[in-house]
Every structure is written in structure tokens, then in C-alpha cells.
Amino acid sequence: MFPVQLFLVSSTLWTLQRSLCHGACVEVDSDTDAVVNENFKLGCISCKMRAEVPATATVNWTFTPRGENETIHIYTYKEAGIIENERFYGRLCWNGSRNTTDLQDGSICLQNVTWNDTGTYNCSFKRILTFPSYEVTTYASKVVHLNVLSLRTRGMASILSEAMMYVTIIGLQLWLLVEMIYCYRKISAQGEEALRESASEYLAIALDSKDNQALAAVAE
Ligand SMILES: *[C@@H]1O[C@H](CO)[C@@H](O)[C@H](O)[C@H]1NC(C)=O
Ligand SMILES: *[C@@H]1O[C@H](CO)[C@@H](O)[C@H](O)[C@H]1NC(C)=O
Ligand SMILES: *[C@@H]1O[C@H](CO)[C@@H](O)[C@H](O)[C@H]1NC(C)=O
Ligand SMILES: *[C@@H]1O[C@H](CO)[C@@H](O)[C@H](O)[C@H]1NC(C)=O
Ligand SMILES: *[C@@H]1O[C@H](CO)[C@@H](O)[C@H](O)[C@H]1NC(C)=O
Ligand SMILES: *[C@@H]1O[C@H](CO)[C@@H](O)[C@H](O)[C@H]1NC(C)=O
Ligand SMILES: *[C@@H]1O[C@H](CO)[C@@H](O)[C@H](O)[C@H]1NC(C)=O
Asked: Among 79, 112, 126, 138, which residue is least crowded by beta carbons within 10 Å?
């Protein structure tokens, strides 16, 4: 059990340290499996490389439906969000950074997901870094390939890793039990042997002293 716990603790510490070192901004990849008729968060995080430099950013989202080669502009965020295409009217909302123009999280939420929402989403950041005497414009983009499912299913990897966890825990417990039984048997066997040994020694001593007494009697 020890190595598993050690691993968990050290990986948690490592993640914590990583997020602290990057000013709490970590570029987490978006989920890619949405469920039809539910809401879904299209995640898009672009961390500012120079956390100490003031900046402003704007975000665009585009969508390429699966099987089509036309890309449509669906959302713009510049101080406020604007839905740019009628197929998403009333269905997109902002889930990114709030109360700042220095955006690092450009996530949006997609409400009442339909089968037609399947496709490729592209989130692009345009960031203007303001240095004391000049400005630098940087671009970054993230792509989300969205699948729409009829039911919430768990990824194979998650199921496998949970199964592995149980196998490991139960396996280790069984191993511990077997080891305990083995040790118990060994100790009790040694105990009996020791008893037997001391008994035979006692007998030998007793016989010895009897012999001596007999010899002494003969000698007298
Ligand atoms: C993609 O666009 C090209 C040119 O606009 C067109 O010839 C082609 O058929 C289109 N492909 C699909 C899958 O729509
Ligand atoms: C989403 O679907 C629910 C239930 O069908 C409906 O009440 C709601 O108005 C819909 N929301 C949007 C933004 O279409
Ligand atoms: C996204 O924003 C909507 C509306 O503001 C909110 O209801 C929803 O909980 C948010 N989702 C996440 C994952 O933050
Ligand atoms: C953002 O601004 C709104 C109104 O200006 C305020 O109600 C809200 O508390 C602010 N949120 C944060 C996280 O500062
Ligand atoms: C999905 O797209 C097809 C073909 O473009 C259209 O006939 C259908 O009405 C659309 N469904 C929804 C829910 O928007
Ligand atoms: C996403 O959009 C940006 C800006 O329009 C573009 O530079 C980038 O190539 C796009 N990425 C993909 C995979 O289409
Ligand atoms: C978003 O799109 C508009 C119009 O296509 C463009 O002017 C703007 O620079 C784009 N912004 C980003 C962040 O890519």
C-alpha cells in the first residue's frame, strides 16, 4: 500500500507546485464528450507567459460542423460576449475569466447540446502585452473535437484505472493476509519445536543426573 500512497502524495504535491509556479494558471484540456440535450463547457485556457506584464485579451470561437468544410465564426468575447451565428442564438454563454480584460480562461458553455453540434471548435486568443514603452501582440489557439453522445459514458481509461485500483487494493490485502498466516504458522511451529527441544533437554538432564546418582550409588 505504501508505494501507492507515496505516489499519490507526491503527484498531488507536484501538481500543486506546478499551479503555484504558474500563478495558478494551468492549461487544462477541454472535455470532448457532450451529452445531447445537456449543457457542456467548451474549455479553453491560454496562460499568459509573463504573469507580471499587464495585458488585455480577446477571444474568438469558430465551429466546423463534422463532414463540412466551412468554418463559421460563432462567438466573440471582448469585454462582453457576442453570439455571431444564428444556429447558436440563445445557447452560448461565457464561462471564462470574469471582471477583467486580462483574460486567461476563454471557456464558453454550450446549452441544450444537439447532434448537429458535433464537430471541431477553435478558440483563438489575441493578447496585447503592454510593456513600459511598447506593446506586443501574441496569438494562441486551442482546438476541441466535440463528440455528442446519447448517454453519459465513462472513458475506458477511467473504468480501467478504477478496476486496477480495486485489484491492487484487494491483491495487497490478500498478500498481507497470506503473509500473516505464514508468519503465524512459522512462529507457532518454532514455538512448539522450542518447547519440544527444551523438554528433551530437560529429560536428558534428568537422565544424566539419574545416571550420576546411580553411579554415585555404585561408587558408595
Ligand atoms: C469543400 O469545399 C470545396 C471547395 O469549396 C468543395 O469542392 C468540396 O466539395 C467541399 N467538400 C465537402 C466535403 O463539402
Ligand atoms: C433548453 O432545454 C430546456 C428543456 O427542453 C428548455 O426549457 C430551455 O429553454 C432550453 N434552453 C435553451 C437556451 O434553449
Ligand atoms: C457556465 O456559466 C453558466 C452561466 O453563467 C453557469 O450556469 C454554469 O454553471 C457555468 N459552468 C461552469 C462549468 O462554470
Ligand atoms: C464582478 O463584477 C460584478 C459587478 O460589477 C460583481 O457583482 C462581482 O462580485 C464581481 N466578481 C468578482 C469575482 O469580482
Ligand atoms: C441538424 O442538421 C440537419 C441537416 O442540416 C437538419 O435537418 C436538422 O434539423 C438539424 N437538427 C437540429 C436539431 O438542429
Ligand atoms: C484556429 O484559429 C486560428 C485563428 O483563426 C488559426 O490560426 C488556427 O490555425 C486555427 N486552428 C485550426 C486547427 O484550425
Ligand atoms: C476575431 O475575429 C475578428 C473578425 O474576424 C477579428 O477582427 C479579430 O481579430 C479576431 N480576434 C481574435 C482573438 O482572433
From this structure: 79
Q: Which residues line ligand 6 (CB under 6 A)?
A: 122, 124, 141, 143
What is the whole-number distance in angstroms between the Cα of residue 51 and the centre of ligand 3?
26
Mutate to test the pocket of ligand 4, among 79, 95, 97, 98 (most ligand atoms within 8 A of CB): 98
Residue linked to cell 495585458: 55
How many Å lie between the centroid of ligand 1 and the Cα of residue 65?
13
CB-based contact 108:95 (threshold 8 Å)? yes
Give the ligand 2 atom nearest the CA of 111.
13
- Distance, in Å, from the CA atom of 83 to the CA atom of 89, rounded to the nearest integer, reads 6
Burial (0-12, 13-18, 19+ Cβ within 10 Å), 91: middle
pLDDT in tens, 63-103: 999 999 999 999 999 989 999 999 999 999 999 999 999 99
Give the model confidence (pLDDT) of 119-148 as tens digits.
999 999 999 999 999 999 999 999 999 999
- For residue range 204-219, list pLDDT tens digits in order: 766 666 666 655 665 5
Burial 118-133 (b: 16+ CB within 10 A, else e): bbebbbbbebebeeee
Q: What is the pTM of this model?
A: 0.69
Q: How far is the CA of 124 from the centre of ligand 6 (A)?
A: 7
